[in-house]
Design goal:
CATH class: Mainly Beta
Number of helices: 1
CATH architecture: Sandwich
Radius of gyration: 16 Å
Number of strands: 11
Strand content: over 45%
Strand order of the largest sheet: 1-2-3-10-5-8
Mean pLDDT: 87
Structural class: mainly beta
Shape: globular
Distance between the termini: 50 Å
CATH topology: Jelly Rolls
Largest sheet: 6 strands, antiparallel
CATH superfamily: Jelly Rolls
Helix content: 10-25%
Length: 131
């Protein structure tokens, strides 16, 4: 077996053997699929009729892709409805929130990118009670 092929198999086995980290929130779940120094990929599930808190980040941007359900995205005060296979970009320092106005769970893939991805870079606005 060529050396490169063996390395690819080892890397795949290592990635697949790591358990995903899921955080449970009142509005749904966040599962970290992959992360490195300047990016993190999350699977976000929002329960029907629920939303994440309005928030912003100084050190990262986000890209959301809807896998299933409907997302009502509010970014800098502008509302947009996204359906399956649609996406949006949330720039740094932009207040944003996502809601699930539908009757089935909203599932999104979120790609965070930036110099700092720590939880203390989440600035929450006091307009709602869900985290």
């Amino acid at each position: 077996m060529p050396e490169n092929q063996n390395d690819e198999q080892t890397m795949t086995a290592t990635l697949n053997s790591e358990p995903a980290k899921t955080r449970i929130r009142p509005w749904g779940t966040v599962t970290i699929l992959e992360e490195a120094e300047r990016y993190r990929i999350n699977r976000i599930e929002v329960k029907p009729g629920h939303h994440i808190s309005t928030q912003m980040h100084y050190h990262r941007s986000e890209h959301w892709v809807v896998v299933s359900g409907t997302a009502k995205v509010i970014c800098d005060g502008k509302e947009t409805l996204l359906k399956q296979k649609e996406s949006t970009y949330v720039p740094m320092s932009m207040p944003h929130r996502v809601e699930n106005p539908g009757v089935i769970p909203l599932v999104m893939i979120e790609v965070q990118n930036g110099e700092y991805l720590g939880e203390d870079d989440i600035i929450r606005f006091g307009d709602d009670t869900e985290n």
